[in-house]
Amino acid sequence: MVNSSIPLEKKELLKLPGVGNYIAAAFRSLHMNIKDTIIDSNVVRLYGRFWGFETNPETRRKKWFIKLAENLIPAKRHKDYNYSLLDFTRAVCKLRPDCVNCPLQVKCNNHSKNIE
Fold first, then answer.
1. What is the pTM of this model?
2. Could you confirm whether domain 39-113 is CATH 3.90.550.10?
3. How many Å apart are CA 51 and CA 16, to the nearest integer?
């Protein structure tokens, strides 16, 4: 059970010590089942590879990238989508991607660069 003193609104969560965008979004999405967009360096890497755009450590803070990520979150099953992103970037689209076994390889703009 969640402590009733923990706010559910993102603005309020961000006021808590040590809580940034990632923690606030993960708490809301994964624990409270509230639609929110989880963005970390792994998600940036996946989207950058898939659509073929350059990324850097600041990409996750760019308004255009945040808007892209927000537009990709489905209205239903957003919690499953976020868990899937986390699992997929851990198992397949990691730093050294497993493109050969990737179910997205046909459409991924990075696929041909990573076949070993």
1. 0.86
2. no
3. 35
